[in-house]
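Lab notebook: predicted structure, single chain.

Context: the supervisor wants predicted structures on file for every construct in the current expression panel, including those that have not yet been purified. This is the next one on the list. No modifications to the sequence; it matches the entry in the shared construct table.
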Amino acid sequence: MPKVTAKHFSNILLGALLQNSKRIQVKDRVLILRPTYVAGKYGIVCGRESNSNNPANQRWLIQVEDVDSSNILVSLILGEFILINSE
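Prediction complete. Output recorded below exactly as produced.
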């Protein structure tokens, strides 16, 4: 079995993230992993930031579902949230 290097693993991970980015749509529900102040909360995808054309640096605007405040909007990259279900 061939040895998997850190660079090879990074390329595999990046490919998987890019595949997921094609599935993300406005109104999809996500679980937020980072940053810590909203980690573990759910959110709704509002859209992709207009200045994130590079697929490796795509940032998504996520409206946090929070019973205490409905006004939290975060800008996250792939890997900082998980797609829960598609609209």
